[in-house]
Amino acid sequence: MKIVHDFPREVRVIENVWIPMSDGIRLAARVWLPTDAEHSPVPAILEYMPYRKRDFTRLRDEPLHRYFAGHGYACIRLDLRGSGDSDGLLLDEYLQQELDDAVDAIDWLVAQPWCNGEVGMMGISWGGFNALQVAAMRPAPLKAIITMCSTDDRYSDDVHYQGGCLLNENLGWGSVLLSCATTPPDPDIVGGDWHAKWRHRIDNAPFYPLVWMRHPHRDEYWKHGSICEDFDAIACPVYAVGGWADGYVDAIPRLMAGLKVPRKALIGPWSHAFPHAALPGPAIGFFQEALRWWDHWLKGIDSGLMDEPMLRVWMEEYVPPAPMHAERPGRWVAEETWPSGRLQPHTFYLNVLSLGERPDSEDRMRIASPQTTGLAAGDWYGFGAEGESPTDQREDDGKSLVFDSDPLTERLEILGAPIASLELAADRTVAYVIVRLNDVAPDGASDRVSYGILNLTQRDSREHPEPLEPGHRYRVTVKLNDIAYAFAPGHTIRLAISTSYWPVIWPAPEPVNLTLYTGTSQLQLPARPPRSEDAELRAFEPPERAPMPEMTTLTVAPLRRQVERDLTTGMTIYRISTTGGDFGDAALARIEDIDLTVGYTITKTYRIYDYNPELAESTVEQTTTHRRGDWSTRLECRTQLTATPQSFRIRGILKAYEGDTLFARRDWDEEVARELL
Question: CB of 350 within 8 A of CB of 365?
Fold first, then answer.
């Protein structure tokens, strides 16, 4: 990674600026400016999210925003209402208030003497979400956005539900947000009333996982902020960026197909991270790539970017399964438009234990997967750390119905979403089907290429599910995640079908026996023929960034992932302990330039029994620490989810300490009816 110290424009940093909202609330911003911007105004780039610009994202923010400021942009890192040092309360994700605040902030930006009236928004994850959502509001100064690792559909493609099934990440992410939203503001920024602001946050904090579980289907709650409801609402150019190892990649092809504005897409092998530093690699010079976008749309400079193909992706090759990949072998390929008319559907038929080019006569196969199926899945979305990648799928394959092709005689490349069309019946009114597409090497190793999940009660509608009629035969379509992948000669294509996928999703209310009808069920792969122009694609520049603030590691907490099995009871415990955030393996670190000690640790524990979904349990435990001189605070948060066939039970305890004295406490213990989940 090249560290750039000298830029075309000198940069000054304003540690905190108060941006007033129309209702009197102030939002806290950190600002990077060319030193001469007040005499020579520049375009502004806004990043807007709740992850505490003062500390938790400081190490990430500085290399990013100083880089763009050094190239002639005003960069603003803004804390959401109720987060970081901003006033108010953070009551939920993507509320209309959040979007209205963004419009107020944009209006404030263009009124500043250092801004020339042209504004862009960019962000990853939350900041990528609201960049799309604010663009759909069409504020006049907003000329373009970059959205990374985000989605256009808050129900179908976020951390809450997938395929109509409850993700365990709903509890995990909701617990993280709870800790983030109840962390105190910094007294050095907000002054002596930090106590009152902290108390106000804790006393009014929603129990976020509970809020989301009260909306189990795609109702108006989820439609708000889902720009797929009206792609035409967006009028400014959009650059969508993501990675195959991220949970949000499916939105990018939809955006390219649905938007009418000038648009570009870039998908690498990356996880939920910026492409200049993401794993798996190869990493690219993403900051330079973003500058080409901003120069074109905010400065009117012809950077050549818009002359290149609409969609550029990393075509992955087989690599032996491992808990982490430093790099994925492959190459860059591109399509001029999306959907691409070049793709050719390649159909396989699910025959008895095989994938065939032609259907055999109809037969039936049955599967009732153990609840532990899915332990080889890796994380729903990862950040490039050890243990996040799917491992060898053979253990999960052994708990699934498996259909293998003959070893391939020719290379087969796919780009897009594999589709499984299944004829099946279930013996319960609520049942799930999980479909995995694997690449089986000649030595037998099974690598997951893509997967899809469907709650069969949502076979016809995410909004209006209907219970299954036990024993009734249905034809359902399961869309797998989009992917670009090359199956090599000598390798076998495997389709594996199961009824559970723990700990990715919460199990069905009761054990399910599924009957699959072979000979009529199909797998369709989006085959991509060679494109000679791929060899002429412009090479990305090597990664570079501005310097990072100095950090001193005080306490180390290495990542741990452990699976414990009790063979006498059939119980399996999967535990993940990590530090999270941008501090590497530091459980406690000092940010030197603001003399602040920050600590964060999180442990997730998933407990399941082989054949009893009623005993499933997820627990998240977090500790957050802030210290400077005599100022010392600590948050301890523990959340837990259990269930019966009729209802979920979700509990939480939040304890806030000033020094070693308990400052505040919140307790939650709620039941939520299982509505076809």
Answer: no
Q: Rounded to whole angstroms, how far apart are CA atoms 415 and 157?
A: 19
φ, ψ of residue 11 in degrees (nearest 5): -125, 140
- Phi/psi class of residue 136: alpha, beta or left (left: φ > 0; alpha: ψ in -120 to 50)? alpha
What the block records as the tokens of 402 is 């498996």
What CA–CA distance (Å, rounded) separates 44 from 204?
A: 34
Q: How far apart are CA 264 and CA 309, in angstroms?
A: 8
Minimal CA–CA distance to 647: which of 667, 618, 619, 670? 670
Please state whether 545 falls in left (phi above 0), alpha (psi between -120 and 50) or beta. Answer: beta
**pTM exceeds 0.90 for this model:** yes
The two tokens of residue 392 are 């060898």
E strand spans, 50-104: 74-79
Task: For residues 357 and 403, give the distance between their C-alpha atoms in angstroms, rounded to a whole number.
Answer: 12
Residue 130 token pair: 């609201």
Cis bond before residue 209 (omega within 30° of 0): no
Among the listed residues 585, 526, 522, the one whose alpha carbon sits nearest the alpha carbon of residue 555:
585
Q: What is the CA radius of gyration of the chain?
A: 25
3-class state of residue 428 by DSSP: coil
Token output for 632: 């010392």
Q: How far apart (Å, rounded) are the C-alpha atoms in residues 643 and 153?
A: 27
- Nearest partner of 659 among 636, 637, 630, judged by Cα: 630
> In angstroms, what CA-CA distances link 273 with 333, 395, 544, 667?
21, 29, 15, 33
Alpha-carbon distance values, 35 to 172, 174, 353 (Å): 42, 40, 68
Tell me which DSSP letter residue 253 carries. Answer: H
Task: For residue 451, give the nearest of 227, 207, 249 by alpha carbon.
Answer: 249
For 420, the token pair is 């499984």
SS3 534: helix
Using CA atoms in the order 520, 525, 529, 530, what is the torsion angle rounded to 10 degrees? -150
By the 8 A CB rule, do 502 and 300 touch? no
Q: Which residues of 454-483 are buried (b: 16+ CB within 10 A; e: fewer)?
A: bbbbbbeebeebeebeeeeeeebebbbbbb
* CB contact set of 274 (below 8 Å; sequence gap of 6+): 60, 64, 124, 148, 286
Residue type, 64: L
How far is it, in rounded angstroms, from Cα 238 to Cα 223? 20
The CA distance from 594 to 286, in Å, is: 28
Distance of CA 463 to the CA centre of its chain: 23
pLDDT in tens, 261-306: 999 999 999 999 999 999 999 999 999 999 999 999 999 999 999 9
Is residue 236 within 8 A of residue 135, CB to CB? The reply is yes
Q: Are 661 and 671 in contact (CB under 8 A)?
A: no
SS3 (DSSP) at 59 = helix
Q: Please tell me the distance from the alpha carbon of residue 670 to that of residue 206, in angstroms, as a whole number.
A: 13
pLDDT per position as a tens digit, 407-466: 999 999 999 999 999 999 999 999 999 999 999 999 999 999 999 999 999 999 999 999
